[in-house]
């Protein structure tokens, strides 16, 4: 009995161990199966939302719910730098096709501007060679001008009269005009820089009340003014009110002539006070003025003032009575607004720094002489006013 019981207990324990082993095996199999199923992609579920990119994982890894990033195309390689040729300089010469612009005024002997001319009415010659006009314009464009006034006690009585006309000129400026006022004695002085406020211009003219010096260094002042204007875009004008005398400028006459010839897009209108000075100067002798210029000095000064204007296509004025100043400044303003602008490509394309002489003629449509008649049907004589030449030069960048 005892032996049978013991055998039964042993068998029962073995069965338990066997069943426990089977349970463990089934558990291990179940765990393995679940692990394999977790690695499979989820079934499509229309109600399930996708997780944002890189959710639940480190930067750069794509998890099972992440939206894969599109691979960006690599940037294009930088262009190859041009190989430097030995002996080639580092700077470059910028040579553009030369275009010459010539402002032209066609006026009667009394100074009235003749309007209504067309491109076909003009002939341009450079060093005697005909040129083809490729650009033409005639409109009342805004002006850019400097009023340069001699302001010295030797001619103050004359200058004061001329400033009355200058004041009239300033009062007729338009809102788009740019004007500066400058005077000179020993050196140039800017009263008002470029402004569109005509009241500021008139105030500047009024501030010239009593000169402090006798000297008039015209050449230095004109050179300085031209040098400043070269930095301003567009066409510019200088209204020079002066006796034409020069005391002791550092520059000589030939140097200022050269400067004018090398200057482009600047027209000088010369208003000489010389004629009035020579007539009123005799009265100054009784007031103790002993340094009265000789007649030859006046003639030389007049010639210089006239040359300044001719070289640049401007006009020379020489009033005989103070009452003429108002009309003179009106004519200057009319010339500035109504000039014909001609442009051409020169047949001589060399930019060699040489001075080229210009000549402008006015002709009828058939090529013959142009006839101008007044309101009474009578023929009117006229002048063609244009700059005498230009200097052909290139720029280096």
Give a verbal description of the structure.
The chain has 397 residues and is an alpha/beta fold. The chain has 2 domains: 89-138 and 339-397, no CATH class; 140-338, Rossmann fold, CATH 3.40.50. 32% of the residues lie in helices and 21% in strands. It has helices spanning 2-38, 156-171, 198-206, 218-229, 253-261, 274-284, 295-312, 325-338; strands spanning 93-94, 100-108, 122-126, 129-131, 133-137, 144-150, 178-184, 188-195, 236-242, 266-272, 316-317, 340-344, 355-362, 382-386, 389-391, 395-396. The protein is globular, with a radius of gyration of 45 Å.
Q: Give the amount of beta strand, in percent.
A: 15-25%
Number of helices: 8
Biggest beta sheet summary: 6 strands, mixed
What is the N-to-C order of secondary-structure elements (H for helix, E for strand)?
Answer: HEEEEEEHEEHHEHEHHEHEEEEE
What is the CATH architecture annotation of the largest domain?
A: 3-Layer(aba) Sandwich
CATH topology category name of the largest domain: Rossmann fold
The shape is globular
Count of individual beta strands:
16
CATH class of the largest domain: Alpha Beta
Number of domains: 2
Offer a concise description of the structure.
The protein has two domains: 89-138 and 339-397, no CATH class; 140-338, Rossmann fold, CATH 3.40.50.
Name its key features.
397 residues; alpha/beta; Rossmann fold; six-stranded mixed beta sheet; four-stranded antiparallel beta sheet; 21% strand; globular; disordered N terminus
Secondary-structure blueprint:
Blueprint: H1 2-38, E1 93-94, E2 100-108, E3 122-126, E4 129-131, E5 133-137, E6 144-150, H2 156-171, E7 178-184, E8 188-195, H3 198-206, H4 218-229, E9 236-242, H5 253-261, E10 266-272, H6 274-284, H7 295-312, E11 316-317, H8 325-338, E12 340-344, E13 355-362, E14 382-386, E15 389-391, E16 395-396
Parallel strand pairs: 6-7, 6-9, 9-10, 10-11
Antiparallel strand pairs: 1-16, 2-12, 2-14, 3-4, 3-13, 5-12, 7-8, 13-15
Helix pairs in contact: 2-3, 2-8, 4-5, 5-7
């Amino acid at each position: 009995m005892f032996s049978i019981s013991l055998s039964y207990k042993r068998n029962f324990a073995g069965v338990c161990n066997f069943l426990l082993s089977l349970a463990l095996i089934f558990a291990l199999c179940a765990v393995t199966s679940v692990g394999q199923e977790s690695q499979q992609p989820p079934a499509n579920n229309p109600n399930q939302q996708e997780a944002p990119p890189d959710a639940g994982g480190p930067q750069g890894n794509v998890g099972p719910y992440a939206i894969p990033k599109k691979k960006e195309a690599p940037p294009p390689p930088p262009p190859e730098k041009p190989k430097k040729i030995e002996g080639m300089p580092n700077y470059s010469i910028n040579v553009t096709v030369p275009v010459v612009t010539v402002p032209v005024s066609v006026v009667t002997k009394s100074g009235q501007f003749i309007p209504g001319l067309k491109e076909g009415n003009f002939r341009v010659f450079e060093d005697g060679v005909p040129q083809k006009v490729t650009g033409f314009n005639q409109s009342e464009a805004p002006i850019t001008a400097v009023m340069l006034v001699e302001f010295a006690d030797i001619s103050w009585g004359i200058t004061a009269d001329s400033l009355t006309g200058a004041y009239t000129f300033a009062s007729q400026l338009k809102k788009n005009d740019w004007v500066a006022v400058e005077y000179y004695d020993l050196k140039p002085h800017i009263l008002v820089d470029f402004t569109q406020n005509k009241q500021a211009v008139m105030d500047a003219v009024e501030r010239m009340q009593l000169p402090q010096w006798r000297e008039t260094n015209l050449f230095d002042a004109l050179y300085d003014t031209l040098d400043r204007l070269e930095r301003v875009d567009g066409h510019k004008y200088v209204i020079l009110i002066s006796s034409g005398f020069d005391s002791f400028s550092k520059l000589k006459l030939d140097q200022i002539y050269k400067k004018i010839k090398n200057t482009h897009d600047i027209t000088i209108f010369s208003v000489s006070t010389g004629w009035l000075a020579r007539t009123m100067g005799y009265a100054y002798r009784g007031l103790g003025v002993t340094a009265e210029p000789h007649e030859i000095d006046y003639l030389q000064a007049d010639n210089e003032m006239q040359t300044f204007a001719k070289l640049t296509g401007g006009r020379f004025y020489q009033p005989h009575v103070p009452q003429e100043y108002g009309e003179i400044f009106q004519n200057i303003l009319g010339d500035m607004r109504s000039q014909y602008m001609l442009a051409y490509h020169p047949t001589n394309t060399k930019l060699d720094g040489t001075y080229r002489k210009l000549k402008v003629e006015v002709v009828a449509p058939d090529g013959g002489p142009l006839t101008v008649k007044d309101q009474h049907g009578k023929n009117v004589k006229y002048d063609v006013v244009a700059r005498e030449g230009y200097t052909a030069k290139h720029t280096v960048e």
